[in-house]
Amino acid sequence: MSNVDIILVSYNTAEYTVRAIESVFEQTKETDVNLIVVDNASTDNSVALIQASFPDVEVIQTGKNLGFAGGVNVGAKAGSAEYVLLLNPDTVILDGAVDKLVAFAEDNIKSGIWGGVTLNNDMSLNPNNARARISFSTLLFSATGLSKIFKSSCYFNHDNYGCWDRKSDKDVDVITGCFFLTPRALWESLEGLDETFFMYAEEADYCIRAMKLGYQPRVSADAKIIHHGGVSEVNLSGKMIKLLKGKSQFIKKHEPTWKQPIFKGLLLAHVFNKYISSSLISLVKKEKLAVRDEWRTIFQQRKDWLAGYQ
């Protein structure tokens, strides 16, 4: 029986975290699981609720918010299993997904990183389980809105592999960190996640570093989970600023110097276009004023997120 350290990083997500843990134990029958919760100084009742609900689960309290990468690294160091599985607290394991993903890994051992398919709460497809590496074309089509207009195209929406229906296994560039399996040996050789990425793009960085060693991330179509997404963020601007910071940091780390201003310029164009379009929509639909204000905040803080994580 394979053994896996499952790392959940908790931050003010008490009820979601309990639901995720319940689903792991209910749905995992063929894998020896060591579940470790790392709490990033939650101000809700997360720690008390988790400890009361699952007295045998290890809960590590960091005392401060280390971000996703920092929290995961703390959890991984506390384990010793042959596999490390990153699992977001806002997920629900479906139909033995952990067992299926581990079996898939052992059948595709040279991939080095494995993920599954993510669904929304209504069981519709959530295509954010995997994505392509940041490139000129992915940024351009996002900035111009073509990736949204032609979201079922693998040319215009290559970022999310738009034409892939998630009904088949697939090699991808990046496995999303919400359901992310990797061998401990590779994890340790790469020294875990780069903690410079406080939140977002840390899994992209890990995947690219692994690919440089000859590994090829791969998705199993049979391993399915529900992923709500972004439940620890209370507003659009908070989430987007962290996401853009992560992308900017990735560009700074992995792209040549001459490409960086071009790529960051396209990130800025994307935000500017969102701000302008939401402003125009709000002239007709007053209920959209809040969305306009969020994009205005994101645009106004452009110097901060374009700099990445210092």
UniProtKB/TrEMBL annotation:
Residues spanning the membrane: none
UniProt entry tagged with the keyword Membrane: no
GO molecular function annotation: transferase activity
Alphabetized UniProt keyword annotations: Transferase
CDD domains: GT_2_like_c (cd04186)
Database matches in InterPro entries: Glyco_trans_2-like, Nucleotide-diphossugar_trans
Stored SUPFAM superfamilies: Nucleotide-diphospho-sugar transferases (SSF53448)
Glycosyltransferase 2-like domain span: 6-136
PANTHER family assigned: RHAMNOSYLTRANSFERASE WBBL
Protein name (Swiss-Prot/TrEMBL): Glycosyltransferase family 2 protein
